Structure formats: structure tokens, C-alpha cells
């Protein structure tokens, strides 16, 4: 008989991809924050790191929602690989939209995530953020 | 969890009790309450954040907006907050230098009394 615990495997072996599609409306952000914390727990992030991720995802989405076409969806794609969680959040826009990089939202997002990229294309805007477990924080 | 708001006035200080999550969805309700209080002549506000579970930059923007309004009337907007995860957001944005932040309502009331 095989040991059932082998199925879960070692944390370093985890590679999960999870997509969440929600209406692009602020009322749903609390749902996405909860999903983020739940997925971060799978990688054994500390409580502080989970909280950082929850806030970072919230800030990224709040920025995107300002540009989102009403009635469309917000798509969040989480990728968990060993020590790192990468999250891409994307909305549909009219034309090319760029996030403001001189406000509180960008300041908080870039302080809490290890890497942040904004990707704009015609009719879409995405923010990709990454956070590593146990990463040293820049001062 | 949604956002619960309450307020009471003690002497000249209006204490705003905030409970729950302040995000882009709920922050407009806090903004409306602060604007309403100022419009009704309450220029010394103390926002108790001890029961706030979540705060993002939208919430910060609302508090800064409230501060600007009361300052236009020589008033004050101060905070009660001891939660490290909430204080962290104020530190990241440099707002710990902008707001008076106290450990309890009593401590804030004492400081406010001294300033009068």
C-alpha cells in the first residue's frame, strides 16, 4: 500500500496554477483577497507575507478597476512554484491604459510585492506581481 | 466582512468608530461620513481603527481627504491604531508623520485636552 501523504508531496514540489474570474467590480475584491490568502497558505507563507500579498493584490486590482470597462470581468491568474507566488490580474480597457505610478496605491503595491510589472496592450491592462516566501525586504 | 461605522461626540471631540474592511468598495461610506461630520461643524475628529481588519490606499486617501477638510476649519483628524499590519501601510506611505496616531481613545482624548 502506498503512503497517501506522498500525493501532497514536498512544498518545493508544488506547482499550482489557479485562475479566478470575477466581475470587474469593487464589491468582489474581498473575495479575491480571501482566495489570495488561501493560496498563499498553501506555500506556507507567514501571516505577515500573506497579509502583504492580500494588500498587494487588492491595490493592483483597485488600480485596474479604475480603467475596466463596466460589465466585463477581472481575471486573476495565480501561479505557485515552490517558494514563489506570481499573480497576474487583468481587465478589459478601452484603448491603452497605464497605471499611475505616483500615488499611494503604487507606493503600497511596490513596497509589499517583491516585483511588480504593468503590462498594457490595446484593450487590456494587466499587473503582474510576485512574492517569494522568506525573501529579504529592501529597506 | 463589511464596514461598520458609528460616531459619538465627547466634549469637542467626535469619535468615529470603524469596524471591518476599508477598501475601494467600502471607503466611499467612510468618506461620506467624514464629509457629513465636517459639514455639521465637527472639526475635531478621532478615527478609532482598532477594529479595522483591512485597510488599503483607498482608505488612506479618504483619511487624508478628511484631514484636509478639518484643517480648512483649523480642526484636527487623528487616529487610534496599534495594529502593526495597519500601521505598516501608514509607514510605507509616510503618513505616520502626517497623522497623530494614538494607542487608545483615552490617550488621544488626553492629548487633545492638552492641546486646547
From TrEMBL, chain A:
Pfam families: HATPase_c_2
Sorted UniProt keywords: Kinase, Serine/threonine-protein kinase, Transferase
Protein name: Anti-sigma factor
Domain (Histidine kinase/HSP90-like ATPase): residue spans on this chain: 22-130
Gene3D superfamilies, A to Z: Histidine kinase-like ATPase, C-terminal domain (3.30.565.10)
GO MF terms, alphabetically ordered: protein serine/threonine kinase activity
Transmembrane domains' residue ranges: none
From TrEMBL, chain B:
Pfam families assigned to the protein according to its UniProt record, in alphabetical order: STAS (PF01740)
CDD domains hit by this protein: STAS_anti-anti-sigma_factors (cd07043)
Ranges where the STAS domain occurs: 3-112
Gene3D superfamilies in alphabetical order: STAS domain (3.30.750.24)
Gene Ontology MF terms in the entry: anti-sigma factor antagonist activity
Keywords assigned by UniProt, alphabetized: Phosphoprotein
Superkingdom of the organism of origin: Bacteria
Role played: Positive regulator of sigma-B activity. Non-phosphorylated RsbV binds to RsbW, preventing its association with sigma-B. When phosphorylated, releases RsbW, which is then free to complex with and inactivate sigma-B.
Similarity annotation: Belongs to the anti-sigma-factor antagonist family.
Protein name: Anti-sigma factor antagonist
The organism's taxonomic lineage, starting at the top: Bacteria, Bacillati, Actinomycetota, Actinomycetes, Streptosporangiales
